[in-house]
Amino acid sequence: MRRRVFENRTKIILVIATVVMTILRFLLNEKGRVNPDSIRFMRTSSVFPTIDNTTTPLGYPLSLKFFTVFGLDEFWASKLVGILAYVFIIWFAWKKKFYLKETVMTGALFSFVSIFSYTMSEPLLLPFVFVFLYVGRQIIIGQLKGMRGLLFLSLLLIAMYNVRYPALFFIGAVLLFGMVNIRKIYGKTFIFAALAGFGFVLLYKFLFIDYFNEDYIDTFLEIGLHPTSKLLVELFQGLATTFNPFVHIANPAGGSLNYGIYAIGVLNIALMVYVFIRNGLSETETFLVFSGICGILCSYFIQYFYGLTPLDYRLLNPFAFPLWLVYFRKLYQVFGRSTYMVPALSLMTGFVFICMSHGNYLENRRIISNYLKSERLENAVVNFYIDEEMSIEETQVAEIISTVNPRIYLTTKPEDTLQDATLTPHRVLSKIKIDENEFQ
After folding, report:
1. Is residue 319 scored above 60 in pLDDT?
2. What integer pLDDT is reported at residue 352 of this predicted model?
3. What percentage of the chain has pLDDT greater than the value 70?
4. Which residues are registered as beta bridge partners of 385?
5. Measured between alpha carbons, how far is residue 5 from residues 8, 12, 15, 93, 375 in Å?
6. Which of 41, 170, 358, 412 is the most buried (most CB within 10 A)?
């Protein structure tokens, strides 16, 4: 009885600490945890029902739009979406008694704290991934059968694709899993659900993407985009940081510290493989691990013809999620309650990181708000010039502006700087000073 009470209290403390750390993660970041993609998300939400891009599905921008109805702007709506996504996952795991302790531990990893605090679509995708894993498990154990199981699984695959295009990899994983298990009673359910998902992807391409951007495929697909030697190095670095439970960001400038970061990640991956093989996997666990590995492999191979930023903890996070769940379950079977030390140490490491790199988003927001008001641009459409040679300090000006006025468009044409309506980093930074932090 005492053991159960202690463990329940530990879970509650970890959940509270995770929410607090998520809030601190974006408040003590100089730009509120946004990046250039965040600009597009918030702008898409702001200008809807006008469709100004098809490089991202509408799921995430529409979730921001929903909360703006209650008086929030797009930036604060994105932070609420991230926190609610985490809370929903915990609630669903508790309600369905599905990987509850593993979900609490996984969500408390600092890499996941960084995800839930980000103005990106990954936080919204994770609850759908979690429910998808649960539904897959229910089909495997026979709790969801026939058309009901097919409908639920199909709708989840379609919903995930409407949040992030890489959910296509989950559709592929479901198809392969069904084909591998074709002789089992649930095999055909997975296959037909995947086919329904692929059918939706084709309709989406012809009825939405081609309608608003007929050059999308020609613009973004290019065979032989990156050499294998480069992609393998990036894959190694991405996996080593994604599966490092304490530090998920390497120093882009290099240095000896990165060797330690990569080493911890590699050792953790080796231990993960060992416990999976040593302890064996149930059918449900096999489905979770299979889905995660397929997603990671597809994320790698897609880079040969689709331009992506180098694989990192953010891009791999949805596919690492099921692997972490199974991993923590196996560790708990061996080490018991001591396993909670891993997420606890991860949160403490994250707190130190935040204290070392703290910026002040609220102060920067105030400075940018005053600047936009003085320039009469707080509600106007803003063009912002950037180029590849600009420093982080210069490019982050546009990101901070987007958190106050999301109707900002980036331009790379030098001639646009001759227009009064176009801002440049020099034009902004000559009048204000942004509070910076050392680490991102």
Report:
1. yes
2. 92
3. 95
4. 411
5. 5, 11, 15, 18, 58
6. 170
Number of H helices, E strands in the chain: 20, 3
The domains of the chain are located at 2-357, 361-429
Mean pLDDT across the chain = 91
What sign does the CA torsion over 186, 189, 195, 198 have? negative
Residue 35: pLDDT over 70: yes
Q: Work out whether strand 382-385 and strand 408-411 pair parallel, antiparallel, or are unpaired.
A: parallel
Who's near 37: CB < 8 A, 6+ residues apart?
56, 120
pTM beyond 0.85: the answer is yes
Length of the chain: 440
Q: Are 39 and 398 in contact (CB under 8 A)?
A: yes
How far, in Å, CA of 413 to CA of 436, rounded?
Answer: 27
CA pair distance 26, 141, nearest whole angstrom: 40
Closest CA to 364 of 403, 394, 392: 403
Which residues touch 142 (CB under 8 Å, ≥6 apart)? 185, 186
The Cα 114–Cα 91 span in angstroms is 20
C-alpha span between 358 and 352 (Å, rounded): 10
- Which contacts (CB < 8 Å, 24+ apart) does range 158-163 have? 158/196, 158/197, 158/200, 159/59, 159/128, 160/125, 160/128, 160/129, 160/132, 161/57, 161/197, 161/200, 161/201, 161/204, 162/57, 162/58, 162/59, 163/57, 163/59, 163/60, 163/121, 163/124, 163/125, 163/128
